[in-house]
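The following record pairs a protein chain with its ligand, pyridoxal-5'-phosphate.
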Amino acid sequence: MQAKTFALADSMRRLGTESAFVVLARARALEAQGRNIIHLEIGEPDFNTPEHIKNAAIRSLHANRTHYTPAAGIMELRAAVADYVQRTRGASVTPEHVVVTPGAKPIIAAILMALLNPDDEVIIPDPAYPAYRSITTYVGAKPVSLPLIESRDFRFEISALEAAITPKTKILVLNSPHNPTGGILTPEDITAIAEIVRKHDILVISDEIYSRHAYDRPFASYYGLAGMPERTVLIDGCSKAWAMTGWRLGFGVMPTYIAEAATSLVLNTVSCTATFVQDAAIAALNGPDEPVQAMRDEFLRRRNLLVSGLCKIPGVGCRTPGGAFYVFPNVSKIEPDDIALANYLLNDAGVAVLGGSTFGPYGKGYLRLSYANSEENLTEALARMERALAAYKR
Ligand code: PLP
């Protein structure tokens, strides 16, 4: 007898997805059929993890550091994170403020779950990294879109933030440098935002995971502003800066009462982060900075190549993003349905990109391209896109 199909929880209908992983799977399926695909869909540095970090993990394994750790992470790593935050943001924090998780994504989920009740409102830039919206709706709270404006280099209007606030607003999400647009908040922006946040007593989640990828001006940390650590959760981790996406190591820095709640969620789900990965993260945070800077410099060259190439394609408009490793060209003159255009580019040109609207309604008419790929592949992708877009028929 065939087993019956059990109904899934209603809450599953409120969970979103992440187009980068969906398109990656489709691109891999095409590759399995023998197609050549250039991958500009996934947001992970294509560089190898620096040697000193891999060696630290190997040493840790040889020392049999392969057992459970405390849920919030080993004290040495939490202390290394506190030092790193002090060095990079000028904020004075102690290890008790730090919670380590397998990647930055789980700490984002834990923070939203720890803080939100149904009907609470969360102001989220739109477009945005999908996890903020997905977990907000999953717990029954309400995401409120804060439109990012192309002509402002994908920064929001400060007046729009103030207008989005209601008595139900509990959290504001900031992400600078920003996924998917590469936009970056200015020092003036963060000062103005802090003033509003103080006035309305709102907690901020400041996702600064791309802080090491700021190109044209020094990175301005929201978390580093005076008085902010008491009312802010900083999100960061090793994935992007040290090319460690597959290691799974992220962390949050937050007021201790929130850290205790987030730790309880970690304890009840994943228990802890792999011990030897935590040891490797200490080597990353305390080690030489040259590998991080070398990767950043290479990303900058690629950004310039990709932006200038895209601007030469008829019908495509592309701002020069100040950070992260994404460009967000406007393709609405060619095809307003960005997802259809992304599908066309994958199937007909063998270039995997993402539709902007998969990051929120205000991403409609844009594509997201990651430049975590070699200059040679980027040049080839541009040539393929130019040919395919010239032949495109709506
Ligand atoms: N935050 C942002 C803005 C991201 O773009 C990503 C990954 O793409 C993450 C967090 C999650 O990083 P991790 O791979 O460490 O979970």
